[in-house]
Every structure is written in C-alpha cells, then in structure tokens.
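Example record

One chain of 475 residues, shown exactly as stored in the release files.
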Amino acid sequence: MFSSKKDNALLAMIRTGQTMTGRQKLSLIVQLSIPSILAQLSSTLMFYIDASMVGSLGAQASAAIGLVESTTWLFGGLTSAAAMGFSVQAAHFIGANDFVKARQVFRQGLMATAVFTAILTSICLLIARPLPIWLGGGEDIVGEASLYFAVYAVSLPVYQIGMLASSMLKCSGNMRVPSIMSIMMCVLDVAFNFFLIFPSRTVAIGGTEIYMPGAGLGVAGAALGTVSAYLITGIILIWFAVYKSPELSLRREKWVFAPMWGYLRNAAKISLPMAAQYVMMNGAQIVSTMIVAPLGNFAIAAHTFAITAESLCYMPGYGIGEAATTLVGQSIGAGQRGLTQSFARMTIFMGMAVMAVMGLVMYIFAPEMIGVMTPVEEIRTLGVDALRIEAFAEPMFAAAIVGYSICLGAGDTLIPAGMNLASMWMIRLTLAAVLAPSYGLQGVWMAMAIELSFRGAIFLFRIFSGKWIKKVHVK
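Predicted structure tokens for this chain:
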C-alpha cells in the first residue's frame, strides 16, 4: 500500500501541474503521513522509555530530568527552526522542478547551521551548571539535572545537521528514510539505556538467569544513551541526504563556500519568527515548570510523565502536519493555488479526526500510560488526573498543530508565531498561575486544555480565511 513509486508519481503530478482527484490527494496525504506519524511516535516513545527507565530509580531521578526537559526542548526547537528555514525553500524549488536551486539551498543550510549549532552548544555548556538552580530545583536534584543537560549539549552539532538532513528529505517527499531512522533511534536508545542506566545484575529470561553487565550511571546513563542514539542516526541521515537523495545529492555538485545571501535572507525570514516562537514557547514551558516546582517533587515528576504520555497521542497530529508542510510547500512551488488550499483543508480535518480518537484513548488508558513510567502511587494519581483533563482538548490541539504546519509550508511564520505566543503567554500561563495555588497540578492542566482549545480555534480561522496563502507569490 505505502509505495515510494506511488508517492513519487503523485508528487510528480503536483510538480507538473496535473489535476488531481480527491482520492489521489487523500492517498498522497496518507502515504506521506503514515511514515511521518511512525517517526513522530517512535521519537516520542524514546522519551517515554527514558522516563519509564529513569522512573524506576525513584521520584528524585525523574524530577532531575523533568526539571531541565523543557530547556532541552528549547534548544532542540532552535535547531529545528534553523533547519526549516532552508528546507521550506527547498520544497518550493522542488515543487517547481528546480533541483539545482534546491541543492544550492541545501549546501548553504549545511554551512549556516554548522556555525549556528557551534554557538548553541557553547551556550548550553556555559549554563549547564546554574540552570537547575535558576529553574527552582531543590538541592537534592540540581547535580544530576546539570549533568543530564551538559551531556545533552554535547550531541547538538550532529543533532542539528541530522535535523537539517531529515527536514530536507521530508520536504523533498521522502518520509521513509527519516521514519526508519527515528525507529532505529528508539531501538538504539532502549539498548544503550539498558546497559548505561542500571548496574550489573542478573536477569531472568525464560526461567534462565543471565548475567547482564551495566554501567549503573542512572540519570547520566539516560542522557548518554539518548546522545549515542542521536549520533548514530544523525550521521546516517546526513550521509543519505548528501549522497543518495535524487533531489538533494551533493555528490557531484561543486561545493561553493561563499555565502549566497538571497537564500540566507529567505532562511532568516522563515527561521527567525520560528526561533523567537521556540524561545518564547519553551520559555513559557520553563515558567510553567517553575509554577509546578513549588508543588513538590511528586508534582514535578507527574507533570513530566503526563507531558510525555500525552505526546504519544498528539504525535499523529505532528506527523500529518509534516505531510501538510511538504504538500503545501511543493504545491506553492508549482504555482497551484487551488491544490494548495485543498491540501490545507484536507490535512487539518484529518488531523482533528485522528487526534479526537487519540484523546479518547488517552482518557480511557491514562492509568496504564502513567503506570508504565513510575511505581510511585502519588505520581500516578496526579498524572492520570492531568491526562484526563487534557484529553478533551486534543482535537483543537490538532487544529493548531496542522494549521501551523500549513503556514510553515507557505513560508508564513511571523503571524502564526505571534498567535502561538499570545495564546501561550496570555492565556495558559495566566490561568496556570491563578489556578495552581487552589487546584495544584490539576489547575495547571486545566489552564493548558483551555489554552489549546483557544489556539486551535484561531488557527482554524486563519487557515479558512486564506490569509496565509495571500502572503505567498504563486504562479
């Protein structure tokens, strides 16, 4: 069913200006979404497994990772913003059948993001020690939290270039290789964690006891396992994009080191609003963590576990969103305005339908989703309540996710970034600060559910008003 030849044939219809039937459009959306959803789910599963393995060490270890997790998302988001500034341009050129310019953009992206990530890594290492203290962590967790963040920082250079290669491949229509690498990353992370987190021990398998060596590094082992998985899969992604991709391969291209300012300016126009959004959105997540921190280690751990568990339910929305970015980007590059709008409507409704189902699953299986990650009853109770509150907001969360991805494919990032920021800072944090003292962690998650519903509504208005596509020149 999921054939790369079928994908390529349908994508070629976009690039050559052919009329597509509704069934062909739906087929292409599904063909591109499924690998992307699997990639998103496997990536989230990696964090889920990390949380469950560390959770077995107790609330203190879980709280140490939870304290700095929002900050790792911040820096990961900045690498994503840098990559998308170039890959969206590549999608437009590929849609216009101009592979020469797509490769030029790729080369410029490799050089620019290498410089950017060197700066980013230096900043991370400088703040690693004081960061947990700034976030309000207790003395019992700041040491492990600092170490976890420092190890994460070391992986950023390869993670950044791997992110660029992955987003370039996705925008070219190749969702399969990034998906396979995400699944591989998850498998490697489990394997590395198994040996690095726990000490040497005897494991019973099928009635036979087997000696299992282990480093016993605890929280640091979880960080090393994740970093090792990033490094291996990142290198493979870079190799495939540079040497094997039909649209992007630089193997026979003359390497030009001089900056090509037109591409760099366009990348900045796309990336800077995204980067500002990531800083402010993750800053909001950090403030949210600071609101939760006074509620105690149980609340911090439950908050972190609930976020991780919920991500298993909203990742399908991000998978459909990535397909929307590719399809909208290539349709705009091909000058097909009607097709662009059609893909926008179809993807946003598909995302809402899928995540409505996932919200129901999350509500029903909340005890099992939290229970896998921690044996501590107090954490489980708090986490289950949080997930069941959030379940009602999932369809509108999908509208926000896919709506933003549609705008991204069009290169329209400034106003959508402002929409995300205003919703997060003015509604979520304000409500969380008001509700947390009276309702505890439940109040924080009530604020989150209300804000996500509002954000989804304003993105639906923007997409169906058509204002996002008016910002783009089409043939």
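Notes: The chain has one domain: 4-470.
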